[in-house]
Specification:
Two copies of one chain form a homodimer. By secondary structure, the first copy, chain A, is an alpha/beta fold. The first copy, chain A, folds into two domains: 268 residues, Spore Coat Polysaccharide Biosynthesis Protein SpsA, Chain A, CATH 3.90.550; 87 residues, no CATH class. Chain A contains eleven helices and 16 strands. In chain A, the strands form four sheets. A five-stranded mixed β-barrel of chain A has the order 6-9-7-8-10. Chain A has a three-stranded mixed beta sheet with strand order 13-15-16, covered by helices on one side. In chain A, α7 runs antiparallel to α8. The longest helix of chain A is centred in the first third of the chain and has 16 residues. Chains A and B meet through β14, β15, β16 and α11 of A and β14, β15, β16 and α11 of B.
């Protein structure tokens, strides 16, 4: 039985949950899911504990976020955290983490998981992961989410014949489609949303990198040589290698090029929690459709999201909404946001305006 | 030339500007007018300085509000403040203040002014006051505001023949009308809004009280006798008298009963600032009709009122509104309000709900 390692990807910058999300507090560190007590990354790591011991859980994030990420995962040891010196996209990050796993166990199975998604049905999720890990014995495997709408914001995976129960061959990875194509994907029964979850043998992934991303492969070899030298050589070499690397996604650099890939079609209440709108959709709501603060007062108000995320200031503060519907009202110590739910993506306009005004402390 | 005394009425409780206004911070103490630096009562007293020296300016308020009111008017001496032991409406308050004026100068002219209104055109206001003071030599005089809309929320004064330039006889005081009647008042050219401003000789008002409100007259006499006795007798007697008095408005108790009254028709940009909607109407606005905070960010947002009235917490905080129109967004240290401008009167529903929840600290 191979050992299973998890690589949790926590490099996201996440501006779509402003004012909660910031450069130094990206989405995965926030408790914006239905579980208001646990950060998304905390929920992600808790969710896989039954499948992967915490000693074999790695968390890859930007070097500047390592400290904040450790605070969100206090039960992990400090060696669990890999700080990328500079962001060079998922191929570099996954390649690096895989190389580190292989250093201690070249026969390991690795599962790569995003840190900022929501999973509604954990038993179904665990079943999919077990199937994916079994499939990964023979091919790099991904999980494809059964689409529920003609979403144009995600990449898709086209599946071919069934190779085993619940395991299909990957025909191709496809980029974010236009609306018409997304409609046809939804109707096809052959297309799944790309979940960003990958499962593979460490040696097989490193071989695929050698074949399809030789620049990355040679960089990882340089890091391994430096690691054997000991001292600060590894750190110095890692910085030099990352600095020089081209940014490439694992999808484009590996998945679209490897001939033999498996996909596990699955449906486990997945959401990428892409905006305050998603947060509202997933939250428990009162009979008027409001997701409210405990003390909030809502009068003639329907389908609003209200969040008080202040950490300082007066306790017992009240947020009162009268006669408004479908709004997001979100407070932090240094900002208040009011935006209709159906415009939640437009918080980016605020980010742009704050940048124009030089208000970097609010970004 | 008679001495002019001002009696500024500052007894309002004012819940319509919640969360800014509270039991202990009624509307007149707030800087909610276009002048964001000065409380409404501060603006009221400043506005009459040219007509009435500060030594002859009295401010009548509830005993529990005297301290807060003094802080809003630091340039007045402490003897300027009259604290009503309990609220017994305007007849008692005006009678009591007039009696105190008469104690030092029975020949004085008194002008009674509300403390929580907005005046847009000060020269026109001063002209109306001078006319009213001249008229008060011969009869109790009021100012009638030329109506600009069929308002059903105000009392009206029906005016008769012109007695002198800009001075008309009062035919009658009329209560708040229904819509049809308000329309006919607006069309009549004979009806004015009751401004709540009164001008009279102290001795004439005391005579009118003796005639029409004998209970109040005898109470005031008891207070005067106690004042002559010195020591704490006056305070004790004032408390006993107020406790026992019936609540009566000056309109009902005196104005509707005195045969000879004058009204000065006037138009000086008057507003009773009855709600956040009025505050928005009077405020300077950007080209999109927003009355915003200095640092606020408004994107695709029109005709909103935004107020940050926090006195503690983080400075440099940003309020960002995207894609919302015609809202009032008001923050204080302990509350946040979001309400459409056209429902601004409904903040009373929040007050009711807070009372139901026993959140007295927020009332």
């Amino acid at each position: 039985m191979r050992q299973v390692f998890a690589v949790v990807l926590a490099g996201g910058s996440g501006t779509r949950f402003w004012p909660a999300s910031r450069r130094n507090a990206p989405k995965q560190l926030l408790a914006i899911g239905p579980s208001a007590d646990l950060s998304l990354i905390g929920a992600t790591v808790r969710r896989i504990e039954a499948l992967c011991s915490k000693e074999r859980t790695l968390v890859a994030t930007g070097a500047h976020l390592v400290e904040a990420t450790r605070r969100a995962l206090p039960w992990l040891e400090s060696k669990a955290f890999l700080g990328e010196p500079v962001a060079r996209n998922t191929a570099a990050c996954i390649g690096w983490a895989t190389s580190i796993v292989a250093r201690s166990d070249p026969d390991a199975l690795v599962m790569v998981l995003p840190s900022d998604h929501h999973i509604g049905d954990e038993p179904a999720f665990h079943a999919a992961l077990e199937r994916a890990l079994a499939s990964a014995e023979s091919a790099i495997t991904t999980i494809g989410i059964e689409p529920s709408r003609p979403e144009t914001g995600y990449g898709y995976i086209e599946a071919g014949e069934e190779l085993a129960a619940g395991v299909r061959r990957v025909v191709r990875f496809v980029e974010k489609p236009d609306r018409a194509r997304a409609e046809s994907y939804l109707a096809s029964g052959r297309h799944y949303w790309n979940s960003g979850m990958f499962f593979f043998r460490a040696d097989e992934m490193l071989a695929a990198i050698s074949e399809h991303l030789p620049e990355l492969a040679s960089g990882l070899e340089r890091i391994e040589r430096a690691a054997k030298a000991g001292g600060s050589a590894e750190q110095t070499e890692t910085e030099a290698v990352f600095e020089a690397l081209t940014s490439t996604s694992i999808d484009y650099g590996i998945m679209e090029k490897v001939a033999k890939l498996h996909v596990i079609p699955a449906s486990f209440g997945w959401s990428d929690l892409g905006s305050w709108q998603s947060a509202w959709e997933l939250s428990p709501k009162d009979e008027a459709g409001n997701s409210n603060t405990p003390d909030g007062i809502l009068i003639d108000a329907r389908s609003n999201l209200v969040r008080d995320l202040r950490t300082t200031g007066q306790s017992g503060r009240v947020i009162a909404l009268v006669g408004v519907n479908d709004l997001c009202v979100v407070e932090t110590d240094d900002a208040l946001l009011v935006i209709p739910r159906d415009r939640a993506q437009d918080v980016r306009l605020i980010i742009e305006e704050l940048a124009r005004r030089g208000r970097r402390e609010l970004l």
